[in-house]
């Protein structure tokens, strides 16, 4: 395994159940932490890895803070030994989730990964690069974010994947399921978003 990839991957042991939460983290906030702790409990995971993206292909990245600043802020917000922060996507030079998942599955086949995203992401999942291949390679957990629930489940991806959805009371089994498999987790009520924590010039509120 190339050394630079190994360095970008958090410590782990064979057989671990690891949730992957990708995002710009611009800025990271308490909702990221709450979603992660919620997923750790409901999905019976060992770790959550925050994959801080160099830039989201579906977002305007002009106001994106420097990667190092976002990484450091994410570590401070995470403040939980079960939540690790990684710059893997920058190291492998991609902004696409499919590339990240391909690398992780190929190089760390002894780990059981679950992709975690909010309902707002499921609503636009059909716009992601190779979204069907993502769903076919890794189980997914979608965290309800009212009022996005109906829009997410009625979206093209939500409809296309509906037959692979597990009952919510089986969420703890998700990491052991062959993909495609996903679960829609309800009960976490949070309205924070990174957009609401940014100033018009892209700086983070409370930092200037």
Automatic annotation (TrEMBL):
Principal EC category: transferase
Cytidyltransferase-like domain segment(s): 20-182
Pathway this chain belongs to: Cofactor biosynthesis; NAD(+) biosynthesis; deamido-NAD(+) from nicotinate D-ribonucleotide: step 1/1
Reaction(s) catalysed (UniProt annotation): nicotinate beta-D-ribonucleotide + ATP + H(+) = deamido-NAD(+) + diphosphate
Record EC number: 2.7.7.18
Keywords associated with the record: ATP-binding, NAD, Nucleotide-binding, Nucleotidyltransferase, Pyridine nucleotide biosynthesis, Transferase
InterPro entries per record: Cyt_trans-like, NadD/NMNAT, Rossmann-like_a/b/a_fold
Domain of life: Bacteria
GO molecular function: nicotinate-nucleotide adenylyltransferase activity
SUPFAM superfamilies: Nucleotidylyl transferase (SSF52374)
One Pfam family hit: CTP_transf_like
Matching NCBIfam families: nicotinate (nicotinamide) nucleotide adenylyltransferase (TIGR00482), PRK00071.2-2 (NF000843), PRK00071.2-4 (NF000845), PRK00071.2-5 (NF000846)
Role, per record: Catalyzes the reversible adenylation of nicotinate mononucleotide (NaMN) to nicotinic acid adenine dinucleotide (NaAD).
Family per similarity comment: Belongs to the NadD family.
PANTHER family: NICOTINATE-NUCLEOTIDE ADENYLYLTRANSFERASE-RELATED, PHOSPHOPANTETHEINE ADENYLYLTRANSFERASE
Protein name in the entry: Probable nicotinate-nucleotide adenylyltransferase
Gene: nadD
